[in-house]
Amino acid sequence: MPSAQVPPNCDLTLGMVCLDKGTPGKSEWRMVADERFTNPLGIMQGGFLAAFADSAMGAAALTWGRERAGGARVRAVNAELKISFLCPVAVGTTLVATARVIGGGARTAFVEAELTDGEGSLVAKAGSTYLVEAR
């Protein structure tokens, strides 16, 4: 299996910056809503918000899996994702994604993420299931 690129191209394209992933099962990221990612109405297209949430939740699942594997390398693969958009996101808005593992088993992690704007208002909430395995 080829080694993973860190950071991945999707995070670089979105302009994601890791703020914290020092606690296993948690991660926090920041990005600015870029005009390249708007829909015809001029607001952030939901798929890009979902990608932001997915990357944050994936990082949380990885740190959780690594701790459970005694520090061994793991991979986390998204099996499903649901996201609710709570309000529009304007170009230039600074977004923060806070993700945390809320439960799991031997091979799965259940993760939630909250996306907030610069004032701390909730703009989207996501949940996902990741398959986690040692590499």
Describe the structure.
- There is one protein chain.
- By secondary structure, the protein is of the alpha+beta class.
- It has a single domain (9-134), classed as Thiol Ester Dehydrase, Chain A (Roll), CATH 3.10.129.10.
- The protein is built from two helices and six strands.
- It has helices at residues 9-14, 46-68, and strands spanning 17-20, 26-32, 74-85, 94-104, 108-116, 122-134.
- A six-stranded antiparallel β-sheet has the order 1-2-4-5-6-3, with helices on one face.
- The longest helix has 23 residues, at 46-68.
- It is elongated, with a radius of gyration of 15 Å.
- It starts with 8 loop residues before the first helix and ends with a strand.
- The mean pLDDT is 94.
What is the percentage of strand-forming residues?
35-45%
Largest sheet: 6 strands, antiparallel
Helix content: 10-25%
Under CATH, the topology can be stated as Thiol Ester Dehydrase, Chain A
How many domains?
Answer: 1
Please tell me how large the radius of gyration is.
15 Å
What coarse outline follows from CA principal-axis ratios? elongated
Q: State the total count of DSSP E strands.
A: 6
Q: What is the H-and-E element order?
A: HEEHEEEE
Low-pLDDT stretches: none
- Average of the residue pLDDT scores: 94
The number of distinct helices, counting runs of at least 4 residues, comes to 2
Notable features of this structure?
Thiol Ester Dehydrase, Chain A, 135 residues, alpha+beta, 6 strands, elongated, 2 helices, 41% strand
Short structural description:
The chain is elongated, with a radius of gyration of 15 Å. 21% of the residues lie in helices and 41% in strands.
